[in-house]
Amino acid sequence: MSTTVTKEQVEERITEALVEFGAEPGKINRDAEFEVLDVDSLDLVELAQIAEDEWGVQIKGDDMEGIKTVGQAVDLVASRMS
Questions:
Q1: How far is the C-alpha of 12 from the C-alpha of 66, rounded, in Å?
Q2: Which tops the pLDDT comparison, 64 or 17?
Q3: What is the pTM of this model?
Q4: How far is CA 29 from CA 1, 3, 54, 58, 67, in A?
Q5: Residue 59 backbone phi and psi in degrees, to 5
Q6: What sign does the CA torsion over 48, 50, 52, 56 have?
Q7: Which of 24, 54, 67, 69 gives 20 to 30 Å between its CA and that of 38?
Q8: What pLDDT is stored for residue 1 in this prediction?
C-alpha cells in the first residue's frame, strides 16, 4: 500500500517548517520569496533535510540554489517524489 503525498501536503509541511523558522504565517504563499520571509540558506538546508526525512527526497545544495520562492521549493520536492 503506497501513500501518495499531494503537492498540497508538501506545501502545508513546508509552510509549517517556515513558521518554525520564524517566518510570518500571513506572508507565506507560493509566490513568497524566502528572502522576504527572512529564511536564510541554513533554513533551506533544514528544509531539504525535512524533505529527505519525511518523503525520502534527496535535495542537494545545488538544487536549492535557484529556489527563490515557496512555490519553487514545493514544486521541486513534489517533482522528486513522482
A1: 21
A2: 17
A3: 0.88
A4: 32, 25, 21, 23, 14
A5: -130, 125
A6: negative
A7: 54
A8: 43
